[in-house]
Amino acid sequence: MTTIDYPLAERTLDNGLRVIVSEDHTVPTVAVNLWVGVGSRHEAPGRTGFAHLFEHLMFQGSRNVASGEHFSALMEEGGRLNATTWFDRTNYFETVPTGALELALWLEADRHGHLLDAVNQENLDNQRDVVKEEKRQRYDNVPYGSALVDLYATAFPEGHPYHHPTIGSMEDLDAATLEDVHAFFRTHYGPNNTVLTLAGDVTPERGFAVAERYLGHLPPIPLAPRPRVPQLPPILGPVRLDRAGDVPNDRLYVAFRLPVDATPAYHACSIAIDVLGGLASSRLTRRLVRRDQTATSVHGWTMGLVDGVSLGALTVDVVAGADADDVEAGLCEELEAFARQGPDAAELESVVADTERSWLSSLSSIEERADHISHHALLTGDPAYVNTFLDQVRAVTPQEVRQAAERWLAPSARAVVRFLADSSGEVAA
Amino acid sequence: MTQVARPTVAPPPDWSFPDATRHLLANGLTLLTYDVPGQYVLSVRLGLPVSLRDEPRDKEGVATILARTLDEGTARHSAEEFARMLERKGVSFGAGPSESGLFLDLDVVKGNLDPALDLLRQILTEPAFPEAEVARHVRTRLAEIEQERAVAAHRASLEFVRTFYAPSDRWSRPTGGSAETVATITRDDVAALHREHVVAAGATMAVAGDLGGLDVRAMVEAWLGAWPAGPRARESFLTASAALSDERARIVLVDRPGSVQSELLVGCPGPDRSVDGGWAPYPVIGFVLGGAPNSRIDAVLREDKGYTYGIRSSFRPRRSGGMFLTSGSVRADSTAESLRLLVDILVSPARGFSDKEIRAGVDFIRKTAPGRYATADAIADEAVAMALDGRTTKFTTDNLRDLATVDRARVEAAYARFAAAAGVAGAPEAPGAGWTIVVVGDAAEHREAVEALGLGPVTVVAED
């Protein structure tokens, strides 16, 4: 068992910016990572895709920075950078040589404080086109590309914060005006809605000092956060969506609503999903891939979210000629058996060992470590989660896993999205 | 509120790739260890000079099936038992063939290195290749072939190698074999390949991570010292270079009716790391043309036109010869216009670079090196990749030193040599000369417009 204890020092600036420094001098670089408390879950009907489009605009210049200069100025100094948008938040990050830390913060301050000086119709139109190509590339021009979008719409009710995907609706993006962009920035982008993590070759004293120097002047914004929505219960179902068409083989996505992220119940569900489909020795792999040979592969995954629900799924690629209904029936049998039996000692040991290695791997780079720290500071309130997560997983008992499976992974609670290669299949809602 | 003046940047200190401790085992296995404090997950990488050319022509794909069945059961354990044994120790294991050799990857937390090496020993020396498991992986690979055909970027790659390499060359065909050859593979084929080629002679193993308190050399001697050397001595790298097709300079349009985007793949022969004038300028050229959101291609096709989410260019060196490849997808109705702009940008260096562009590329590649090679997996990957290229990571360091001296004149000379050798001079009367171009998209929509560009002869192939 590996014990970890990454150092964490935290300070909140007068303007509300939460700053966390995790010192590590093994490499002369610093990861700068900002999480802003806005994601697609904050979008209103008719305004979907906005958080993500906005993230693109953050690279198009600000008061003292030309369009594209954020990228070029940092890359010329050896920075590697990007940004992503997700249901729960938007993040901006760069890993820079230690000597470029202050430049990185200066550039972040300029766009996080003074973006609107530079936003214009031309870069709005251009980035809207780029986002449409991103959507075509990721969703429209690949087999099974709509799977996740379909899963969200099937598993979560209309109007729920996670019912619509982060990429949003192209019609909504077309309707976006410059005034919408301005309003979005003023509503969500402010130091008191942001977490800054510095991980790497920087001491807490210096980290706090440079954060104050470059970001301390940003004015706080009026925040009126809505409370998170209550926990969604399991689906009373099952519910399903079939898509027939041009895919190489049948594929099933069998999904479940789960408890919100970073809770003991979520960890228990996550372990259950791993025992069922997350490992090479998982029950569904043994049953469907090795024994029945009706599936070429099985995957199990969970997506931890904070607004009233998380998502877990088992994905099955069906062997050509095998019957997708039979495969699903076999899967449901295994769910039922697992809810009766719970995990045995070897299954639990395997999941814990696998989780330990993958968690330590993800913390081995300062950029991912910084991202985890920002994540939990912003969304679950506890940046020390990086150090305690493995203990939380190890503390879950077989009985808790069994109970979690019984409640959250019951066959009747499943949302199924099927892609059927047989074009004669019927499309049903 | 007051804003602070833009800060200046202190230059980074000189940096070298971490030093290895090198040890040659009696069976011909070279062990490289890299002690990287704080990296609690150890990365074990093994590179074997196993050539795809060693596959029988009618059994192509057997190296891929071999890689996927090495851990599917051993002399003493069933496939299921062995999977559980790996997982109880938290070992992630994977293997796959490539043009430069066979790679095995194993990651494990520090405390479990010893049992993980025992498991690796069993994988290397005692695989049973049970008939049922081989048959299952053959079926899985056949399904995967269908999956790959359905993904435009994969489809473009398959068509590219088929067009670019001589039909007689192994590299003109898929690394993992085709449906016809894969379907015939048996456990005996796999076992025969294993017996002859998965041997210690010429193999390189890198172990990177927090090695404090571990005697890695003793552990590897204990577990892999008895791995058979094999029937003959081997170099640590493969030498054969690929034969190119005489008819590679053309446009192939793979018909995908109704595609909302067209996938573009444009390439030509490129240098390898031993090229005259040094390797260092070439990654800079790749960066300036298509390595970043501000590079020449995306400045036009993404940021000005909005035709694409992004297109990337890079040189791909091999032990002998290499390629220069550019790929990405564009909005369907911009297909011909995007291709015209793209090829024009790819030959634009003949009209020169700016000092600023060169500085940006040099600085990015040089100054990102400490961060790119900060983790155990990145260090071990580079060590084995260099070994299979017939080098050590001294090259990685020397190349970064040389990069610091690269200026505009050197890059322009390097581009000129590359363009002349590849025949992609970009003459006004034949702007597309020398390029192999694959477009995966709607042929009925785009054929005429692509032909009208005058970039070369256009062949349409049906989506198979």
Tell me what the structure shows.
The complex is a heterodimer of chains A (429) and B (464). In chain A, the strands form two sheets. Chain A has a six-stranded mixed β-sheet with strand order 1-2-6-3-5-4, sandwiched between helices. Chain A has a five-stranded mixed β-sheet with strand order 7-11-8-10-9. Chain A folds into two domains: 9-215, Cytochrome Bc1 Complex, Chain A, domain 1 (2-Layer Sandwich); 239-428, Cytochrome Bc1 Complex, Chain A, domain 1. Chain A has 429 residues and is of the alpha+beta class. Chain A has helices at residues 50-57, 69-75, 101-114, 121-140, 147-155, 170-175, 178-188, 204-215, 264-278, 283-291, 324-341, 345-363, 366-379, 385-394, 398-408, and strands spanning 9-12, 18-23, 29-36, 80-85, 90-97, 194-200, 239-244, 251-258, 295-303, 310-318, 415-420. Chain A contains 15 helices and eleven strands. Chain B folds into two domains: 21-224, Metalloenzyme, LuxS/M16 peptidase-like (Cytochrome Bc1 Complex, Chain A, domain 1, 2-Layer Sandwich); 251-462, Cytochrome Bc1 Complex, Chain A, domain 1 (2-Layer Sandwich), CATH 3.30.830.10. Helices cover 39% and strands 19% of the residues of chain B. Chain B has 16 helices and twelve strands. A six-stranded mixed β-sheet of chain B has the order 1-2-6-3-5-4, with helices on both faces. In chain B, 53% of the residues are buried. At the A-B interface, helix 2, helix 3, helix 4, helix 10 and helix 12 of A face helix 2, strand 5, helix 4, strand 10 and helix 12 of B.
In short:
The complex is a heterodimer of chains A (429) and B (464). With 429 residues, chain A is α+β, with helices and mostly antiparallel strands. Helices cover 43% and strands 18% of the residues of chain A.
